[in-house]
Amino acid sequence: MIVIPAIDIIDGRPVRLSEGDYSRLTSYSLTALEAARKFEDGGLSRLHLVDLDAARGSGNNLAVLETIASKTSLSVDFGGGIRSEESVHSAFDAGASYVNVGSAAVKNPMDVCRWNELYPGRIILSSDARDGRIAVSGWMENTDLEIIPFIRKFLANGIKTAVVTDISKDGMLSGPSFALYERLSSELPELNLIASGGVSSLSDLVALRSAGIYGAIVGKAYYEGRISIKEMKEAEC
Question: Domain limits at 126?
Fold first, then answer.
């Protein structure tokens, strides 16, 4: 299992939200580059970088992506505000190894499939769900799309990796949504499933690994001292 630490960015600084609520924000003193270098020094190879400003349409943090990509060896999957082919190109030009696409997958699915043809294997589907249904636009807009049929459509068009977040778990340190991930693994066995939201301890990561999950994202648990970089690497091995 790949363990992927997360850095969420607002105004160039690392923050964490609770349940995707911008009014329930915790900011941290270290810079994004400082955090990224700690992950690199600890032996981790991936980073999940989310531009929350771009996600809600209020600017972008491509400069942060460029700095991390150029000054570390981390493979960065970048998300937030990826809604056009131009924004996909900009993210890759800034150094992203992968791009996470959420809102555009709902509103312009054929465009997303075309982007995957342009950058095969480098487009990751962001499938963020509230009560089993997809939410978009920085989780501020709910849809009627059920998560499994939504992901299945993109699997059929060649996008094999999805970050799946149960929004009710995100930033709550209450444990991952095991039932959701077990259902996804059972019904979509060909999916490279990356679990996101709720990881609070090493035991959560071990349980996800035991369930055969492809990858797991760790955010607030690290920043709140619940899990160390050493433990993340241990779970990955």
Answer: 2-236
Is position 128 annotated as part of the catalytic site? yes
Q: Does residue 146 register a pLDDT over 70?
A: yes
Does the pLDDT at position 70 exceed 70?
Answer: yes
154: domain CATH number is 3.20.20.70
pLDDT band of 175, cuts 50, 70, 90: confident
Q: How many CB atoms lie under 10 A from the CB of residue 113?
A: 17
CA-to-CA distance for 128 and 133, rounded, in angstroms? 8
Q: Which of 8, 51, 170, 204 is catalytic?
A: 8
Q: What is the pTM of this model?
A: 0.91
Alpha helices in 47-108 (DSSP H): 52-55, 62-71, 85-93, 103-107
- Token pair recorded at residue 95: 């150094």
